[in-house]
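Why should sequence recovery work at all? Because a backbone constrains its sequence more than one might expect. Tight turns favour small or flexible residues, buried strands favour hydrophobic ones, and helices have their own preferences. The token representation captures these environments compactly. In the example below, the structure is given first.
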């Protein structure tokens, strides 16, 4: 499949992989070919969800103002033209309804039951706690989370013919959301970037901060309204990514509580902006140059380019006593990969808090087939405070199992 335009949306619809790139809706064919199913105007990110109809699904694609519906049963594609449809920038499904948010955030609404093409002006609701515009909407645990700029309210399906969705008691979170796509859900929970520049997870109806001061400092000055969140879950890891078109991509692993940063070579952030589980694989969409890839544990390159792995330590210090570093040892699982040549891991360090760094020093990872490889560096000087950094870009496994430093006090 060859799609060279930036990917705007990606969705597995019960086995059918749908892709929005440039102004086209594609479906991945049985031979890997991209089959055009319709036209989606615009160049920005889209929102996709679907309901069930006889023999297939109605797939709703929102581009910020309009909604387009592709029927996987009969192959029809149409723009919603119902006079009561106000336009929308987010499509979400719950209990047979396709939900949406009016383009200016004044209210949210829902379709007729099991019909993404039909709407009523009575099927609307407003956030009531504060008059802040609706920034985002996400269905979580069969509830509708409506995110304003400063507050968040939760709605539930009451089953009533009129006023089907009502607010869940007096539930109001005093934290809003930064942008339309800055919310993601996974099996680990609901996550979002707040309007205050902090990342949160939902603990019941309480917003629990998950971001650290360094992460918050790193995104300071970026356009938070353009943040997009997406998730990946595999082999015990459950990661939510927060990306910024004009900046970095950070990932939070809810399984370990640890943060990491993703950056593609030559780009400000990670080239991946969409991830979808399909046919037993994780399919990734490139938001910069276009392209559909498989995200796999045994892949040691990224879109044909180097996959650089880097780890930076905290500060080693002892109440400003001078420390002598006689050695550093890494234990790495390096057994599988590509190529036959002996490959390297490199080390550098900083004695001024990461402002200046030494030249790189090389250590051998051994030939292919070497597992639990011990890589040693000697005669590393002295310092009152030191930060270490290691890096590997060779196309092979590079799992860091442990790191230890031999250090003595010179005081």
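From this structural description, the recovered sequence reads:
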């Amino acid at each position: 499949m060859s799609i060279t335009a930036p990917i705007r949306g990606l969705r597995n619809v019960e086995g059918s992989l749908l892709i929005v790139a440039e102004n086209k809706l594609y479906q991945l064919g049985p031979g890997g070919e991209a089959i055009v199913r319709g036209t989606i105007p615009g160049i920005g990110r889209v929102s996709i969800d679907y309901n069930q109809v006889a023999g297939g699904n109605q797939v709703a694609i929102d581009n910020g103002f309009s909604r387009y519906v592709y029927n996987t049963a009969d192959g029809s594609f149409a723009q919603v033209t119902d006079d009561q449809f106000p336009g929308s920038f987010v499509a979400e499904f719950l209990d047979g309804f396709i939900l949406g948010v009016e383009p200016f955030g004044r209210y949210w609404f829902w379709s007729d039951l099991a019909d993404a093409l039909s709407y009523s002006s009575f099927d609307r609701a407003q956030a009531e706690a504060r008059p802040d515009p609706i920034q985002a909407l996400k269905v979580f645990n069969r509830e509708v989370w409506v995110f304003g700029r400063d507050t968040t309210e939760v709605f539930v399906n009451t089953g009533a013919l009129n006023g089907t969705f009502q607010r869940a008691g007096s539930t109001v979170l005093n934290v809003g959301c930064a942008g339309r796509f800055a919310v993601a859900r996974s099996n680990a929970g609901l996550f979002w970037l707040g309007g205050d520049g902090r990342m949160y997870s939902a603990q019941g109806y309480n917003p629990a901060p998950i971001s650290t001061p360094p992460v918050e400092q790193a995104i300071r000055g970026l356009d938070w309204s353009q943040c997009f969140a997406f998730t990946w879950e595999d082999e015990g890891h459950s990661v939510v990514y927060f990306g910024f078109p004009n900046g970095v991509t950070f990932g939070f692993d809810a399984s370990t509580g640890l943060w990491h940063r993703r950056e593609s070579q030559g780009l400000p952030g990670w080239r991946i902006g969409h991830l979808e589980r399909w046919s037993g694989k994780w399919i990734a969409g490139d938001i910069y140059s276009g392209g559909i890839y498989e995200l796999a544990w045994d892949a040691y390159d990224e879109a044909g380019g180097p996959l650089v792995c880097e780890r930076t330590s905290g500060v080693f210090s002892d109440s400003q006593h001078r420390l002598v570093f006689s050695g550093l040892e890494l234990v790495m699982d390096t057994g599988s990969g590509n190529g036959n040549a002996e490959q390297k891991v490199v080390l550098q360090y900083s004695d001024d808090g990461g402002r200046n760094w030494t030249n790189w020093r090389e250590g051998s990872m051994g030939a292919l087939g070497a597992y639990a490889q011990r890589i040693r560096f000697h005669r590393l000087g002295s310092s009152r405070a030191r930060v270490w950094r290691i890096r590997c870009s060779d196309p092979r496994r590079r799992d860091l199992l442990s790191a230890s430093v031999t250090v003595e006090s010179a005081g």
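A few observations help interpret the result. The chain has two domains: 7-307, 310-409.
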